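Two quick folds needed for the group meeting slides. Do the first one here.
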Amino acid sequence: MKLSTSTGDLLKYASSLGDAVRLFKDTPFRYLNLEQDTAPYFLCPSDQPWQRELEDWAKAAEDAGITYVFSHAPCLNAFSGDRTDYDVTVRAIRRSIESCGALSIPRIVVHTSFSPDFTARQFTEQNRRFYGDLLETAENHGVMLLTENMTDKNTFVPLATGQELREFVDAIDHPLLGACWDIAHANLSTRAKAHGQYRCITDVGDKLLGLHIADNFGDGAHHHSWPFAGIINFDEVMQALLDVGYQGYFNFEASYTLLHHENLPYRRQPWVHNGETVKRLLDPSLELKQKAVALLYDTGKYVLESYNCFEE
């Protein structure tokens, strides 16, 4: 397996997504997950802001010696409001799929949409319509859509376990829809924890085409920490990946190597002294953060080498 990480690692240190990509030049990572969910201009009626950014993302990858291998669509809920909200969400995600086509990114994660009023059956049927409105764009641009498991902390979400994720993908039954397993989400889910990471991953089986790798304490707070900064057992994860013959990237979604003060769910508060806000140590420096990202790479390499599956 090859290591990739997500643009969110360095986004807080840049003025744009493209500039964040450029900062990876001074880290060991050569493969990136382009997190398009951080791009608000996807919601603009005009295509121009998005197209300008798309050109910059291409140039940024060239400048940094980076290859985009994975992406994440805007995190929007198509069923949060009326038909207008649905249309805006579909347009925004179609743009992100088109971005992948233009940048030769083979796979993009698209979250399911949800209403608390849905039954499990309605969830599947409404998302069949939702993904159906995206898959034609995916076909036109040769991009695989991946749906991921979610947490069930606050509400019943029908995609918490590996079995539920597999059944959903099978129900949509389209060659360009696969699954991404988020191990951090699973560690926050009551039902997924009851099954365990090994069973969940093996239940997804050959539909598993992407990973979100992070760690947390399973206590309800969605930290995006690095391996060994939480309680997830990576022997369990690795054995499952080998047993299902996973061929994708070992993709980190672990931007909390050193916390920026704006990282959720807990924010480091600025301190006011003598009427002035003191920011000298509010955040780690960019140099420190890039060293932390380098250590994230070394940590991933250690995990993969321990199972004889590390690839440059």
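Then this one, please, same format:
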Amino acid sequence: MRANASATGLDLSRRGLLAAGAATLGAAWTTAAAAAEAPFFQRHKLPVGIQLYTLGPDLQKDLDAQLATVAKIGFKSVELAGYLGRTPAELRAAFDKAGLVCPSAHISPKGASGPSFSGDLAKLADDLHVIGVKAAIMPILYIPDRLGGDLRSAGAQMTADDWKWNADFLNEKAAVLKKAGIVTGYHNHNFEFAPLQDAKMGETTGMEILLKGTDPNLVTFEMDVGWVTAAGKDPFALLKAHPHRFTQMHVKDIKASTKPNFVLQQDPTEVGAGMIPWTKLLPAAYAAGVRGFYVEQEPPFAHSRLESAKISFDYLAKVTA
């Protein structure tokens, strides 16, 4: 009798364990399913950032009010394009006041005034630390003096040697800034993808020369998806061919009416309203190593700049990718 009671108790215990295990497994599946259905940025615990160039000249005139609106929209992270006529301390105070962080900044390759890669790199690093910047991104090529200062025409006249010079320049500056705790990167437009007339074996475009000629331990890249697409190139293929070289991304959309070109032409629109398949590209970018995502939009705008920024943010905050 005791043996039977013991056996029954053992059986009940097993049933309980099985039931508990099934419940735990079911809860795990439910949690996993919920996580998979969560919006992309929420799932990966990443902020939706904005490149402040998007906001145009009004930003410099009324920095505090503009940043307050940016934060109200929902952005948590911003990327600088120059210092907006402020000191590093003033910028940091403005960002802190708005509850924003600024981990990335576009720094000119050269310039007599303002921060540049050709200036005092020790001072540049100190200034960036004050602001909270961890990545200094060169937003355009270093234009050789012989080509003048017009970006559109200079981009079309660049030679393979010019691009190699730019790669060496990035390596040199990045080696110095790395010692100061600052990552150096390069942001593309669409002229980097123009076929080179003087290309040699293995050299196809300026972008390929930059990717191959820079040290992966020193130089990273910020992919501007809108400009890649405007060049008629495939951002998926670029990410796949160069895994972990792109660590930041400009989330920029363009209309299908954009004709492939290498001369800074595109038909811009808000993110989610254009031709770029973000539900597929965002996870592909994340898998390839991209962790900094910044909304950017080129003029002309169909709405006010801040309204367009909100449209892009609202799409990205909800997109399941």
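Slide caption for protein two: The first strand starts at residue 49 and ends at 51.
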